[in-house]
């Protein structure tokens, strides 16, 4: 008397469900960590820009909008902020 085919299928389905649940739990955490890292890098880049650019007259106000732009877009976001500052000034 051996293991029935239905038991094997139940194990396979159970493993696939476990894989799916694990994937659904891990993916949002990875995305959240990526956004957090981008935000920190963007904030640091804004701070460095203000420290270095202060000597040559370039400064950007650090507020939630500029931090979000710099965080989501990175270096292109910093360039966008600088261009908008020049255009709107």
Separation, N- and C-terminal Cα atoms: 84 Å
Q: Note the quaternary state here.
A: single chain
N-to-C SSE series? HHH
* Bulk shape: rod-shaped
Q: How many β-strand stretches?
A: 0
Main sheet overview: none
User: How many structural domains can be distinguished in the coordinates?
Assistant: 1
Tell me what portion of residues adopts beta-strand conformation: under 5%
Radius of gyration: 24 Å
Strand-pairing-aware structural class: mainly alpha
Low-confidence stretches: none
As a percent range, the share of helical residues equals over 70%
Query: What is the arithmetic mean of pLDDT?
Result: 82
**Total helical elements:** 3
Q: What's the topology here?
A:
Layout: H1 5-53, H2 64-73, H3 75-88
Description:
With 89 residues, the chain is an all-alpha fold. 82% of the residues lie in helices and 0% in strands. It has three helices and no strands. It has helices at residues 5-53, 64-73, 75-88. Helix 1 (5-53) crosses helix 2 and helix 2 packs across helix 3. The mean pLDDT is 82.
Short description:
By secondary structure, the protein is mainly alpha-helical. Helices cover 82% and strands 0% of the residues.
Give me some keywords for this one:
single chain; 89 residues; mainly alpha
